[in-house]
Write a structure and sequence with these properties.
484 residues, binds alpha-D-glucopyranose, Rossmann fold, binds adenosine-5'-diphosphate, 18 strands, alpha/beta, single chain
Length: 484
């Protein structure tokens, strides 16, 4: 039976992306829409979206949104892509800035956004069965929907799913935001339900008030119940553990397809990967100023450069790693310490290591296609999209066994030949370097083993198919609860 689902998030492809959240919101709705569901997505109208897509947007209209103490206008726009309707909420002062998040007034900005999303539903008169909210930017939605629209049965009939993509970003703000920006009274702080330290937490609100909570891999769904990975939300997550599902992400396998990808110099598939990757490696070496060498193992890294991603395991051991017969191509931005270390590395190992500081979608595709090994030694990783892209492009992921990395990468077993990558368990640089050495040895001295691995990586199912089944089951479960 088909359902109507509204996805609410801070970012979504193809319009705007800072990380894996945008990949997911750009691909899961599409996969659900293909199965006949009425799926729509709503995000803020950011400056970058206006710059690139304004002409393609259709203006719906403007209403006054009652966000706490003040009324402010929200203008709604829409566009359709792949059977999914995308809505955009315009508020010049809040959203037409250089970045998406990271401002002093983030709480106020996303309080407005969430209220404007809920008001949009009656404005466009489309009543979804499910609102599927994502990450801290949208965590207040289930509570606001119940508390603010208590008299409207149409709002009360909506079921709520809340997905945690990264528990480390929680949206914790001062308590006065309750009346001033959210239109809620202090009782939700007083009763402890959204209290966090001396303030309130959007993330905690999502966890407490959604009908079901999901996170993006089974392993991460267990990890976050522990103190180590729980980011001080483990107790409330344990309280809701019966309603917590771990569903692994997929990727859009039509967008990410080495056979048709226009950003590559040569297309290839699992049968032609050897010639295909050879040509792409050569082009990448030329593009980035690496020594052009067909035989050398090229390691790639495409990532936010933050502690989460394990980048300091790498920067701690640059000399050891670069002492191997390898090349290293790094793409990303992030913490200054990491950026500086990689800039130093490029300078020290000219022609052998290169660091491209920035966000570059096309170069990312070319790195996945051109590299042999893709490094992702994350300290924690809710799911990870990078390793899925890498496998699809025949670059073997070398990952730490945590979260979704553990669930998607099967380490090489040299006795049976099984696996689709390499992994290590302990979060320390010794184990990572040991595994890089071992992978390097396999690359040079066990070609049949390596070829088998590439073949199995490229044929690993990284699509949304299986996980879309699970999301459907989840929606059906909550929609079939009484009172709906
Ligand atoms: P996270 O969302 O935690 O950053 P994921 O692995 O889930 O990590 O998703 C990261 C996504 O962003 C991947 O699609 C990756 O290719 C992409 N990405 C990360 N950094 C860059 C960059 N500097 N340039 C282009 N794409 C990037
Ligand atoms: C977050 C996580 C990442 C995950 C992505 C999409 O950014 O850090 O592991 O893949 O969300 O769910």
């Amino acid at each position: 039976m088909s359902r109507s689902i509204l996805f609410v998030a801070g970012e979504a492809l193809p319009f705007i992306k800072t990380g894996g959240l945008a990949d997911v919101i750009g691909s899961l709705p599409k996969s659900l829409a293909k199965r006949g569901h009425d799926v729509r997505v709503v995000i803020p109208l950011y400056k970058k979206v206006i710059d690139k897509y304004y002409d393609e947007l259709e203006r719906i209209g403007t209403i006054q949104v009652h966000s706490g103490w003040i009324d402010q206008p929200a203008t709604y726009y829409k566009a359709e892509r792949n059977g999914v309707v995308y809505y955009f909420i315009e508020h010049q002062y809040y959203f037409e800035r250089e970045s998406l998040y990271g401002y002093q007034d983030d709480g106020e900005r996303f309080a407005f956004f969430q209220r404007a999303v809920l008001d949009m539903i009656y404005f466009i008169d489309w009543w979804p069965n499910v609102i599927h909210s994502n990450d801290w930017q949208t965590g207040m939605i289930p509570l606001m929907c119940h508390a603010i629209y208590a008299d409207d049965y149409r709002y009360q009939a909506i079921r709520h799913v809340y997905t945690i993509h990264n528990l480390a970003f929680q949206g914790n703000f001062g308590v006065d935001m309750l009346p001033s920006c959210l239109g809620l009274d202090y009782s939700y702080f007083d009763n402890g339900s959204i209290k966090f330290d001396s303030g309130i937490s959007f993330m905690k609100a999502g966890i407490v008030y959604a009908d079901k909570i999901t996170t993006v891999s089974p392993t991460y769904s267990n990890e976050i119940l522990t103190e180590t990975y729980g980011e001080r939300m483990d107790a409330v997550l344990r309280y809701r553990r019966e309603d917590l599902w771990g569903i692994v992400n997929g990727i859009d396998t039509t967008e990410w397809n080495p056979k048709t990808d226009k950003m590559l110099v040569k297309n290839y598939d699992v049968r032609s990967w050897q010639t295909g990757k050879k040509a792409n490696k050569k082009a990448l070496q030329e593009e980035l100023g690496l020594e052009v060498r067909e035989d050398v193992m090229l390691i790639g890294l495409v990532s936010r450069l933050t502690n989460q991603k394990g980048v300091y395991l790498i920067t701690d051991r640059i000399q050891e790693i670069m002492g191997l017969d390898i090349q290293f191509a790094i793409l990303g931005t992030g913490e200054t310490n990491a950026e500086n270390a990689f800039a130093w590395m490029e300078n020290e190992y000219k022609g052998k290591a290169v660091y491209y500081k920035g966000y570059n979608e096309e170069l990312a595709h070319r790195i996945y296609a051109g590299c042999d090994l893709f490094l992702m030694p994350s300290l924690f990783e809710p799911c990870g999209i990078g390793q899925l892209n890498a496998m699809r492009y025949g670059a073997l992921p070398l990952v730490r066994e945590t979260g979704g990395l553990k669930d998607t990468v099967q380490p090489f077993n040299q006795y049976t030949g099984e696996g689709n990558g390499f992994s290590f368990w302990a979060a320390n640089a010794d184990d990572m370097v040991y595994t890089i050495r071992w992978a390097t040895d396999q690359y040079y001295n066990n070609r049949p083993g390596w070829k088998g691995l590439v073949k199995s990586a490229m044929t690993t199912d990284v699509s949304w198919e299986k996980s879309t089944d699970v999301y459907e089951e989840l929606y059906y479960t909550i929609c079939n609860w009484p009172d709906n």
